[in-house]
Amino acid sequence: MTLKLFTLLLQAAISTVGISLVSIAIGFVIAILLSAARLSGKAIYVAPTQLFISFFRGVPLLVQLLLIYTLLPVIGINVPSVVAAIIGLSLCTAAYQAENMRGGFESVPKGLIEAAEVTGLNPTQTFFRIRVPIALRLTLPALVNEAIMILKSSSLVSVVGIIEITKMAQDLASSTYLPIPIFLSAGLIYLVINWVIAMLGRYAEKSLAGTSA
Amino acid sequence: MMFDPQVIIEKLPEIGSGLFVTIILWAAGMIGGVALGFVVATLRRFCGPAVNLPLGFVVEVLRGTPFLIQIFLLYYGGPFVGLMLDPTPCGLIGLTVYSAAYYSEIFRAGFAAVPPGHVEAAECLGLTRMQIIRRIQIPEMALIVLPPAVNLSVILLKESAVLSIITVPELTATVSAIGSQQYAFLEAIFLLAVIYWVLVEATDRLGRLAEHRLARLRFSKA
């Protein structure tokens, strides 16, 4: 395999990383909102949240992506396919991240929340200043795993024609008749990116462990 | 959106066959994955670093790359090394190997979680090696291994949808083909989502039930 092919795969990797990062970030924000809705304890917020989480965790991502691609134009939203892919990935990872955060939120000591209330913090302040920071520290390892999952899952957006590592590898493999070296290189690139994410995660855990609660 | 249930009812036999293929692939992939994963975990634990390190590397590679890439490598790369596979067997091998990597990690954690004191205590009480494995190690492992194993089988069911990309005639491929033929793609995909959702929720509940049963069994006999 020539260097040129490998360079093309590396260029496509930028799009894989970009799509994954944006999706994880958007998914993270949605997950925090979902957690807030769930913690409110009011049925009108809790029930739809549970339904959302159950749906996006219960349906294969490929099917979700197909659904979003078909649904968006029908309801009159015409966006580029990259945007649709990011919406799909974000909603899916939001459900998973919210589920991961649940454990974190449940292990925030009751006493701390009571103390916050007694100190005069309102529910919003208590949520963002007390619950979120403590819960997030506990969910950081799960978040790193989720980032790795999304990076791998982003290969599915190739199905709708977005040029990222997998789509590029597929195109190159069919035009050069070199599927083995090309798919192996693609796999290697994914492996290296995941490795970097895992290392950053361990570094973040270590530096967070040093700070006081 | 106009929803015409007639379209779906006419195609029920086809959808049923797609569902059947998905369930067979899922079950076979799971059984194969558990078996292979158990072998890998056992080899890694008991056969020294010469076996542990290379196997660990393979497991890391399988866990660190997308399933789709692995399937493409097997399906499109296979013929170049004399491995001509039809889509369905290719998908089955892919699912088995992929899940074996994850199952092996679950079993590894299971092995590691049985406290050595329990095994020593059993030895002191005069239990034979087989008795220790059957009555101490496997029951203790089962309790630790079950929740992540159920989780993984749900993931496996969802990953099997990816096999539609290499034209395995499973649920996703069947239902989306019906959708395109009937110009009812959105309805078809909705139906598809609901079928998977029901399957996943059912598996999840069954798994939780099994966990409760197992936990009760264990504590009532203790």
UniProtKB/TrEMBL annotation, chain A:
The chain crosses the membrane at residues 12-39, 51-71, 77-96, 177-197. PROSITE patterns: ABC_TM1. GO terms for molecular function: L-cystine transmembrane transporter activity. Keywords: Amino-acid transport, Cell membrane, Membrane, Transmembrane, Transmembrane helix, Transport. Belongs to the binding-protein-dependent transport system permease family. HisMQ subfamily. This is Amino acid ABC transporter membrane protein 1 (PAAT family). It is a multi-pass membrane protein. Residues 13-201 form the ABC transmembrane type-1 domain. Its main location: membrane. One of its GO terms (cellular component) is ATP-binding cassette (ABC) transporter complex. It comes from the Bacteria. SUPFAM superfamilies: MetI-like. It is found in: Cell inner membrane; Cell membrane. CDD domains: TM_PBP2.
From TrEMBL, chain B:
GO terms for cellular component: ATP-binding cassette (ABC) transporter complex. GO terms for biological process: amino acid transport. It is found in: Cell inner membrane; Cell membrane. Keywords: Amino-acid transport, Cell membrane, Membrane, Transmembrane, Transmembrane helix, Transport. The chain crosses the membrane at residues 20-43, 55-76, 183-200. Belongs to the binding-protein-dependent transport system permease family. HisMQ subfamily. This is Amino acid ABC transporter membrane protein 2 (PAAT family).
